[in-house]
């Protein structure tokens, strides 16, 4: 019987308390996500409201992070921009995991489909992810469905190859062969024996997909291919603040720091989670 399952929720907190890296990453991630999700409640300025007479104001009691070149409150824009990035990353992660899981199961378990699915995956992986995202956004416009699709497509092959490798090893296990020998239906074998073995690597992969999606969305915004100016985006905020960096460096620094901390927290938590779910990886890194 398969024993490669995710850490039980009851044992998660003791594990978390013994792992400072995981605790630090999760604490920072929860704090940043909480700030962004609660942005409507903890900000009192409209992130899109223009106030030219208040342009380039430094940090004050009214403007906690100052204002930008159009007089917009930077604190609210950073939080709303982080909210957009987190939401986008979550959608990309879910779509990539679901699509990659399906393709990986088909390629790994059904030998007749393996060559077909893997050749399609190889073709997608041959296209640089960032260039594909730029092309799709340029053609389809900077809408949430287009952005999610453009960022998710390059991630799907990575998930599919990961799942396929797990399925290929599990398929030859004695308990799977015994289940098939007893006449168990294919879908039931996949559900009870094969699918649980993919949970651990998929959970870890989901964290790295989130970090990658946040970074790519910021890059697209920085290049001017992101959402419209009235919609706050971390990349576009940094891009808009570049001409005023010497006079008002906070326009670039604060969204940049928020973006860096957000990606760092996701990667810290993902690395620690990978070490916890795969002890062999932890031993290799220590060695």
From TrEMBL:
<dbReference type="GO" id="GO:0055085">
    <property type="term" value="P:transmembrane transport"/>
</dbReference>
<feature type="domain" description="ABC transmembrane type-1">
    <location>
        <begin position="86"/>
        <end position="270"/>
    </location>
</feature>
<feature type="transmembrane region" description="Helical">
    <location>
        <begin position="248"/>
        <end position="270"/>
    </location>
</feature>
<feature type="transmembrane region" description="Helical">
    <location>
        <begin position="84"/>
        <end position="110"/>
    </location>
</feature>
<feature type="transmembrane region" description="Helical">
    <location>
        <begin position="130"/>
        <end position="153"/>
    </location>
</feature>
<comment type="similarity">
    <text>Belongs to the binding-protein-dependent transport system permease family.</text>
</comment>
<protein>
    <submittedName>
        <fullName>Putative D,D-dipeptide transport system permease protein DdpC</fullName>
    </submittedName>
</protein>
<dbReference type="Pfam" id="PF00528">
    <property type="entry name" value="BPD_transp_1"/>
</dbReference>
<keyword id="KW-1003">Cell membrane</keyword>
<feature type="transmembrane region" description="Helical">
    <location>
        <begin position="21"/>
        <end position="44"/>
    </location>
</feature>
<dbReference type="InterPro" id="IPR035906">
    <property type="entry name" value="MetI-like_sf"/>
</dbReference>
<keyword id="KW-0812">Transmembrane</keyword>
<keyword id="KW-0813">Transport</keyword>
<feature type="transmembrane region" description="Helical">
    <location>
        <begin position="202"/>
        <end position="227"/>
    </location>
</feature>
<keyword id="KW-1133">Transmembrane helix</keyword>
<dbReference type="InterPro" id="IPR050366">
    <property type="entry name" value="BP-dependent_transpt_permease"/>
</dbReference>
<dbReference type="GO" id="GO:0005886">
    <property type="term" value="C:plasma membrane"/>
</dbReference>
<keyword id="KW-0472">Membrane</keyword>
<dbReference type="InterPro" id="IPR000515">
    <property type="entry name" value="MetI-like"/>
</dbReference>
């Amino acid at each position: 019987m398969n024993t490669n399952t995710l850490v039980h929720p009851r044992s998660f907190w003791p594990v978390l308390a013994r792992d400072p890296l995981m605790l630090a990453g999760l604490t920072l991630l929860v704090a940043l996500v909480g700030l962004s999700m609660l942005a409507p409640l903890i900000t009192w300025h409209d992130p899109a409201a223009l106030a030219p007479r208040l342009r380039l104001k430094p940090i004050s009691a009214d403007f906690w992070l100052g204002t930008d070149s159009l007089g917009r409150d930077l604190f609210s824009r950073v939080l709303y921009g982080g909210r957009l990035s987190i939401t986008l990353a979550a959608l990309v992660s879910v779509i990539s995991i679901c699509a990659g899981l399906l393709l990986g199961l088909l390629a790994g378990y059904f030998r007749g489909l393996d060559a077909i699915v893997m050749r399609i995956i190889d073709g997608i992986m041959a296209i640089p992810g960032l260039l594909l995202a730029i092309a799709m956004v340029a053609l389809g416009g900077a809408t949430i469905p287009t952005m999610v699709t453009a960022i998710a497509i390059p991630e799907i092959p990575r998930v599919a190859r990961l799942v396929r490798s797990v399925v290929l090893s599990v398929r030859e296990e004695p308990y799977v062969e015994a289940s098939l020998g007893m006449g168990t239906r294919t879908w039931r074998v996949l559900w009870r024996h094969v699918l649980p073995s993919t949970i651990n690597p998929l959970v870890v992969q989901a964290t790295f997909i989130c970090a990658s999606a946040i970074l790519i969305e910021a890059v697209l915004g920085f290049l001017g291919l992101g959402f419209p100016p009235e919609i706050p985006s971390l990349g576009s905020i940094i891009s808009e603040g570049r001409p005023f960096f010497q006079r008002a460096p906070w326009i670039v620094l604060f969204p940049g720091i928020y973006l860096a901390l957000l990606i760092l927290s996701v990667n810290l938590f993902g690395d620690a989670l990978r070490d916890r779910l795969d002890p062999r990886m932890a031993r290799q890194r220590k060695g």
